[in-house]
Design brief:
Chain lengths: ~325, ~250
């Protein structure tokens, strides 16, 4: 257990100091924010995918709803960053909660197909509903607003915003860690492991899949809301199934049986994207190559392998 | 009142008749074996009691109440818990976690996102008891899929016990086990019956085990009940000898 605690302390220390050291390794603060936002998204997806066994190929829908919810709040409702985050999170969370029953009885490929279909529904709404969503051009014309703490006003420059993202990331990750250690989390893992056994223990499996779907959708919506604030922009691409697929790739790259695995997957994916896309328009080809190599060498993902070895030693 | 009562149960799969007009009554506290050649309908009978699928005709009563309309989950919550012919456990969880999930489910706390220290302590204590009862103490923290086949089957029984069943259904509990493992499982079944008064219905092919521990035996053949009685009645039953025991010997 000790090495694990040390690794965690190091991880949080690195995250807390990222704005200082990122430039020395060729990074920049916004990239750090993006990594944390996508890590929150991928870890949220992994609550459903890796810890409950539900392969969602439509999680961009809830990410995008969070983004549109936050953007539209700032644009049409009130110039408040906290309100934008809350509305975005609740919008995505409500959608996932309401749509959960339509997927909770499906398994495997059927689960994947229905989640894609639902996701694309939101994509087309965003594309067609021009007057409100900005259509294909995306939603612009809003910007994140300073935070007010009593009399203190904090302007959200890149560094301050990074710490807002870090705080949200820490909150989301803590919620997930606590859930996975609870009886509810054990039941989710049991369902992933053996649905029939769970059913014959008297566990109403669909209701638990629903709960996981709702929690996962709510947390990924928070990530989406942050992403809209990071860019002061969102577009239908944030709802598209291609992004859903990228989330799945990030999770699998890092290791879907591991709590922190998706973070590793996101770092590789985004850093490779950031670096390669400055060199070539075909950067996705290289992501594909990295994916193939990782899957061949580490069938359980990068961190999945480390944990697996540590566990058997 | 009997614990389990099957009234003229039939089950067809298309044109295949798996069970025909089977009636059976089992008292609380009974240790009963179901035997019969392959394809006799033993597992089909288990499936209808545990709620895997309903009978085509007839009805199942548990504790005096018809349960045909109840799902498998609801039956488990009422106390009918089964194991499977092919072991069904949670392979990547440790032995302790396997049992823990079942204890929490049995205690009705498994849906909680948060558990009090006191409740958690009660769960842990119960898990420890079950681990000890099943003789798995030395392997409690190992991942279940790494265990030997026989130990995995014991884990499945321990999971079932964690629900504090009123009726335990064991589908070939010693299948694929070596001598020593078989002895352990038979000892466990015997202890559960003798010390805890648990009602157990089990399917078994090994006649030494059946005649060694069962109080009553139901013999199925081609979907019908061929005979029912105490081991000595069954061993002297001509129809059974002709159709089944003679064939096995």
């Amino acid at each position: 257990m000790r090495p694990r605690h040390a690794a965690l302390a190091l991880l949080w220390a690195l995250l807390a100091t990222a704005p200082w050291w990122l430039p020395f390794v060729g990074g920049y603060t916004q990239l750090g924010s993006r990594v944390l936002i996508y890590a929150l998204a991928a870890m949220s997806l992994n609550l459903l995918l890796g810890f409950t066994g539900g392969l969602s190929f439509g999680h961009a829908a809830y990410f995008g709803l969070g983004a549109y919810g936050a953007g539209m709040t700032l644009k049409y409702l009130a110039p408040s960053t906290p309100l934008a985050l809350v509305v975005g999170t609740l919008a995505g969370g409500a959608a996932a909660t309401l749509l959960g029953p339509s997927v909770m009885r499906r398994r495997g490929i059927y689960f994947a197909m229905i989640t894609i279909a639902i996701g694309q529904l939101f994509y087309f709404i965003a594309v067609r509903w021009n007057e409100v969503t900005g259509g294909e051009d995306g939603l612009a014309g809003f910007s994140r607003q300073p935070l007010h703490f009593g009399g203190l006003t904090v302007a959200l420059d890149d560094t301050a915003f990074y710490y807002l993202v870090l705080a949200c990331f820490a909150a989301g990750v803590t919620v997930m860690a606590l859930l996975l250690r609870s009886p509810l989390g054990r039941t989710w893992v049991a369902i992933r492991e053996n649905q029939r056994r769970a059913q014959f223990l008297g566990i109403p499996v669909p209701l638990y899949v629903w709960a996981s779907f709702a929690v996962s959708g709510t947390l990924i919506a928070l990530a989406g809301a942050l992403n809209a604030l990071l860019n002061d922009f969102t577009s239908p691409q944030d709802l598209h199934w291609v992004l859903s697929g990228n989330f799945v790739i990030m999770v699998v790259l890092g290791g879907m049986r591991s709590f922190w695995g998706p973070l590793a997957g996101v770092v590789i994916f985004l850093v490779a994207q950031d670096y390669l896309s400055s060199l070539t328009g075909n950067w996705m080809t290289f992501i594909g190559l990295i994916f193939i190599v990782v899957v061949l060498l580490f069938p359980r993902g990068l961190l999945g392998m480390i944990r697996f070895k540590a566990g058997s030693a | 009142m009997s614990l389990l009562r099957l009234e003229n149960i039939s089950r067809q799969f298309g044109s295949l008749v798996a069970l025909e007009d089977v009636s059976l009554e089992m008292q609380a506290g009974e240790l009963r074996a179901v035997i019969g050649p392959n394809g006799a309908g033993k597992t089909t009978l288990f499936n209808m009691v545990s709620g895997f699928f309903p009978p085509t005709r007839g009805r199942v009563l548990f504790d005096g109440n018809p349960i045909d309309a109840l799902s498998a989950e609801a039956r488990a919550r009422r106390g009918i818990v089964r194991t499977f012919q092919i072991t069904e456990i949670f392979p990547e969880m440790t032995v302790r976690e396997n049992i823990c999930v079942a204890v929490e489910t049995g205690a009705g706390v498994n849906s909680r996102p948060w558990i009090s220290r006191a409740a958690d302590l009660r769960v842990r204590r119960r898990v420890d008891e079950l681990v000890a009862l099943a003789g798995l103490a030395a392997k409690a923290d190992r991942v279940a899929s790494e265990l030997a086949h026989g130990d995995q089957r014991v884990v499945e029984v321990a999971i079932a016990l964690a629900l504090q069943p009123k009726l335990l259904l064991l589908d070939e509990p010693t299948a694929g086990m070596g001598d020593e493992e078989t002895e352990g499982m038979v000892g466990l079944i015997r202890r559960l019956h003798a010390e805890q008064g648990l009602s157990i219905l089990f399917i078994e092919h090994d006649m030494d085990i059946v005649f060694g521990i069962a109080q009553r035996i139901t013999v199925l053949d081609q979907g019908r009940i061929l005979a029912e009685g105490t081991p000595s009645e069954i061993s002297t039953n001509d129809a059974v000898r002709a159709a089944y025991l003679g064939e096995a010997a």
